[in-house]
Amino acid sequence: MLNLFNLRGLTWGSGNDDRETVALTAAEVASLRSGIADLEEREAHLKARLEHVDEMLRSARLSGYLYIRTRWAALPGEPPPIDDTEVDDWLPRFLVLHGSCIFIYLVSTDLSPQDSTLLSDVTEVGPLPPLTREDGETRYCFYIVTCHGLRYECSSASKVQVALWLTTLQGDCKSAPD
User: Fold this and answer.
1) What would the pLDDT profile of 122-149 be if each residue is shown by its tens digit?
2) Domain housing 18
3) β-bridge mates for residue 22, sequence order
4) Residue 97 backbone phi and psi in degrees, to 5
5) What is the mean pLDDT of the chain?
């Protein structure tokens, strides 16, 4: 059994009753205890993340990975935004519609969202034309505009997923474009 803990630098010896023993210095014991404490702390942190994700997904009305890019509306007196439709700056993000808020996480296991938007701040939600990427993949798209001038453009390879997000957000925000 002790051979499983093949630690370099430990002195091994045989006891009187044919059992192998190991002699550790106080520093080695302290180091092992510290390592165990670090692992227990990491385990507790990972369990907390898992419980958070579990609770978040159980109580969310909608959740899933979408590709997102953000744009800001031009302020009065500013030139119109540059046409950057050819720029591929879509980033995969995990979106959660929970209560009256849309939370945007980098990955589904994050404890804190990267960004969030209140549904009461959403002024418009609508479809965008599908995109065809260089690899031939088609992504279906929609947009969300906030009263602060922020525009989220969202896309997915799943037409059903985009339709579900679009229908739900338009119903919640009552802001379908004319």
Assistant:
1) 999 999 999 888 888 899 999 999 998 8
2) 2-57
3) 12
4) -100, 105
5) 82
